[in-house]
Specification:
This protein is an alpha/beta fold and 136 residues long. It folds into two domains: 5-67, 2-Layer Sandwich (Signal recognition particle alu RNA binding heterodimer, srp9/1); 81-133, Signal recognition particle alu RNA binding heterodimer, srp9/1 (2-Layer Sandwich). 18% of the residues lie in helices and 40% in strands. It has helices at residues 13-24, 88-99, and strands at residues 5-9, 27-33, 51-58, 61-67, 81-85, 103-109, 114-121, 127-133. The strands form two sheets. A four-stranded mixed sheet has the order 1-4-3-2, covered by helices on one side. It has a four-stranded mixed sheet with strand order 5-8-7-6, covered by helices on one side. It is elongated.
């Protein structure tokens, strides 16, 4: 059993996944637009160039994505995507990349549970928690 994140965008999935691949050193495995599927004629007007399914592998963790149909996008709320690393410098680097063009909710800092921890909403509106645990 495994949990994965499936992120939904408003026409920016392709750009977001290219950005995340750079941020996390991940590999985009697949990316398909509605107009490339057998169901292309069933997509609503304006959806043809939107991503119907994307898959990214970040060190064995899979993240999935898609674009909402035009007019159906809802801003993410009620969750954060938690990314944990074992290296403080890597945590800082990733946090700063995600913060570029985004909004910092909690600056990267030491906490009682983490050597480095910060909360940011990236330029695509996805909320992230970046965590680097204290070494015990």
């Amino acid at each position: 059993m495994a949990f994965s994140a499936h992120l939904v965008f408003d026409g920016q999935c392709e750009k977001a996944f290219q950005f995340y691949a750079e941020c996390f050193g991940a590999k985009i495995i697949s990316m398909m637009k509605w107009n490339q599927t057998p169901a292309a004629d069933q997509a609503p007007p304006g959806a043809g160039d939107r991503i119907v399914h994307a898959t990214m592998n970040a060190s064995g963790t899979y993240v999935f994505g898609a674009d909402a149909f035009p007019g159906k996008y809802e801003k993410p709320q009620g969750f954060f995507v938690l990314f944990s690393v074992n290296d403080s410098e890597q945590a800082e680097r990733i946090f700063n990349k995600l913060a570029d063009g985004g909004t910092i909710d909690m600056p990267m800092q030491e906490t009682f549970w983490a050597a480095r921890y910060g909360v940011v909403r990236d330029r695509f509106g996805i909320p992230w928690e970046i965590n680097c645990s204290k070494q015990h």
